[in-house]
Amino acid sequence: TDVDDKIIKKSNETGEACSTITEKYIDEFHNEMDALNVLRPTMEPKATEHIDHIIGFVEKLIEKGKAYAVDDGNVYFSIDAFEHYGRLSGRNPEDMRAGARIAVEEKKKNPLDFTLWKPAKSGEPYWESPWGNGRPGWHIECSAMSHEYLGEGFDIHGGGKDLIFPHHENEIAQSEALFGTRFVKYWIHNGFVDINHEKMSKSLGNFTMIKDVLERYSPEVIRLFLLSKHYRSPIDYSEQSMHEVNMGLDRIYGFLERLENEGIQPDASGNGPLWQAFTDAMNDDFNSARALAAVFETVKKGNKMLDQAPEQPDKALISELTQVQNDMADIAGILGIFLETPSAWFAAKKDKGVADMAVDPAIVEALIAERTQARKDRDFARADEIRDQLQQMNIVLEDGPSGTSWRFA
RNA sequence: GGCGGCUUGGCCAAGGGGUAAGGCAACGGCCUGCAAAGCCGAUAUCCCCGGUUCGAAUCCGGGAGCCGCCUCCA
Fold first, then answer.
1. Among A288, A192, A186, A195, CA closest to A233
2. Mean pLDDT of the region A318-330
3. How far is it, in rounded angstroms, from Cα A80 to Cα A110?
4. Which of A124, A163, A380, A390 could form a disulfide with A395 if both were Cys (CB 3.0 to 4.6 A apart)?
5. Sign of the C-alpha dihedral, residues A210, A213, A218, A222?
6. Interatomic distance A216 CA / B57 C1' (Å)
7. Span A34-47, average pLDDT
8. Contact assessment for residue A235 and residue A226, using Cβ atoms and an 8 Å cutoff
9. Max mean pLDDT range (A100-114, A188-202, A292-306)
10. A233, A130, A242, A143: which is closest to A184 by C-alpha?
11. Buried b vs exposed e over A13-42: b needs ≥16 C-beta within 10 Å?
């Protein structure tokens, strides 16, 4: 929706048009989703561009006796006219009426009836309608727009857990009351991101914005963090979790780097057992945590194979590892993690470390060269001294067959 | 008060009747001049009580703790 009380309030305060305000936030949203590597939706309909369809929807509900207009310009949905009301959220309208904490609005037939169209107060934007100047209620926007683009029913509807009641319940009521067919086959309700075991909220002042997290961690780390727990469960954001996930991703990239160094590249030879395990997990209600476990198991197994591989790996080993590469590449494309080349990944990390720690790479390289010479001369005291010195700069050395590389811890 | 969910090793987290995946951290070992990386190894009876069952973390009942939704708005 791009018209609601908060937007209107802000518009009245700042003098900016509602559309100016919503465009600003829509842009911000797009920027952050793009940064997180979230694909853009095919359609992103706005409520204000579908008012005619919404009005038509409401008119038809009234015709069918599922809704009623009140003389003050309000139109309400009559929940008593929809027998399945409460099915999704497991609520019983009778109980809710009994437990209602609010003063009953006597214009409603049932206190749980909700607004389809509301009259405009002075200073509010409005559209003309058969019930006077006003604007749509929130729930009807979704029923009307989904109908326009997806038809009378569709397969999957997503949303946060908090929207189950009343929003999704109301969408079902509106659409099924009008069309008499099943509205949605599968509901995908995601849990929230908590922060340090508390709900993020303005009153607690514990908001963390995506853009701030992006300054500290790669988008892939954020994605891996979100995938590490089942989507339905709440997930707790903390520095420690992010750090752990970050380390785990390095482990994956480290393995991919080893494969690359062995000249193992993805090809057209098809998928292996990892792919099977991955798809099994994902097909089980998007069990991303289990899918990732399969990835890590393969990393461990692959590392072992590489450890034990002879100088000249045989064809069978190469073919097995190539299959792993194929699986990893396909999984990367689906999860949106380890999409970069390992060298680019580690180079970016190094750049960030250089910037954060204000380190001069030339000095590091010079020290490493000196250490290499010292090691050749078997002057291990000097070599270790240099390594300790670099460690002070948060730099870790790795001596490999092809020389010494460095990274930030 | 109503409805729903959660409680698994130091931390994070799968599993959901047949004897506990995975990640991070720590520890021991291999490798290494020593390290790092990698590998190997050991580490949990699943909040408590009771029940069903040949068998329960998984089912049922009770209890404790935590979380979300339940006016308007979205």
1. A192
2. 96
3. 8
4. A390
5. negative
6. 38
7. 93
8. yes
9. A292-306
10. A143
11. eeeeebbebbeeeeeeeeebeeebeeeeee
Which residue in the block uniquely carries the two structure tokens 């190094």?
A350
What is the spatial order of strands in the sheet that A134-136 belongs to? Answer: A67-69, A75-77, A114-119, A134-136
Banded pLDDT at A327 (limits 50, 70, 90): very high
CA to C1' distance (Å), from A346 to B25: 22
List the one residue out of A133, A200, A141 whose CA is nearest residue A174.
A141
Largest CA distance in chain A: 96
Give which of A313, A286, A172 is closest to A228, Cα–Cα: A286
Which ipTM value was assigned to this complex? 0.92
Question: Strand, coil or helix: what is A127?
Answer: strand
Which residue has its C-alpha nearest to nucleotide B21's C1'? A293
Say how far apart CA A119 and CA A368 lie, in whole Å: 74
Residue A389, token pair as written in the block: 């010195």
Supply the Cα-derived Rg of chain A in whole angstroms.
29
Nucleotides of B under 7 A from a protein CB: 1-6, 11-15, 21-25, 32-40, 67-74
Instruction: Name the residues in A167-196 having a C-beta closer than 7 Å to nucleic acid strand B.
Output: 167, 192
Burial classification of residue A407, based on how many CB atoms lie within 10 Å of its CB (0-12 exposed, 13-18 middle, 19 or more buried): middle
- Report whether A63 contacts A241 (CB < 8 A): no
Q: Which two tokens stand for residue A144?
A: 């009307």
Of A162, A130, A138, A168, the closest CA to residue A5 belongs to A138
Whether residue A98 is predicted with pLDDT greater than 90 in this model: the reply is no
The residue assigned the tokens 């590389």 is: A405
> How far is the C-alpha of A316 from the C-alpha of A321, rounded, in Å?
9
Who contacts A274 (Cβ-Cβ below 8 Å, separation ≥6)? A294, A295, A298, A323, A324, A327, A328, A331
> Which of A125, A114, A119, A115 minimizes the C-alpha distance to A4?
A125
Helices (H), A284-341: 288-308, 315-335
